[in-house]
User: Fold this.
Amino acid sequence: MRLAALAFASSLAAVPVAQAGETAPRGVIELFTSQGCSACPPADRLASELARDGQNLVLTLPVDYWDYLGWRDTLASPANSARQRAYAATRGDRKIYTPQIVVNGREAAVGGDGAAVAGVVTRAEAGDNALTLPVAVTAADGRVSVAVAGSRTEGELRHGEVWAFSVERSRTVQIGRGENAGRTVTYANVVRKMTRLGVWNGDAAKFDVPADELSHPDSDAVAIVVQAGSGGQPGPILGAAQVDQPKIAPTLQSRLRDPL
Assistant:
């Protein structure tokens, strides 16, 4: 696992990082994982490393379809499993496994393979695969406000959905049974709830919602994702942002990509 992480870091060394004061994510990395999957802990560690690095928006989505193996995943959600299946159907390969990462809603790879993940992220940053849509999110006074820019060129996708993911930045779980019995695993940016805010049609759009409509009892941040397609047929991710929940930091403002 350590070699995989080093391979990932070295492969990204030549890629320019954001300028000072800029916090744009280079990509959105979704990890589909399970506490009942013996191959998943290395991927969980890699996801934690990438989340700490901060150059990408990392989302961990525990799935529930391995629960029958002897341990019921304490963080899993049927919605996470449905999202993974929808991705597989949209890609057309129908490959559903753990650990699996999906980058920018486009390409999948084995989640514990650092070199493979690095390759997918690098390809995601190139050309039409990059996150080019500016998104800004602020959290204050018990509300979450999202601003999505309009398309800048004719060739850009001009239709999608705006989703809010309630996330728990870090959760450590002691696994009592199953393939990982006795292990203690820490998960980064665990998705606890998904909320569809509305449609983006290519023009600048704003959404303002009460924070409690997006929150989960264990979540402490909200990630915003603008994605082509629909919840049942998710397409490429166009832009993203993340902010602490107002109940954690009421005055914190976070802007990913250019301020609008």
Remarks:
- Confidence is low (pLDDT under 50) at residues 1-22, 247-260.
- The first strand starts at residue 28 and ends at 33.
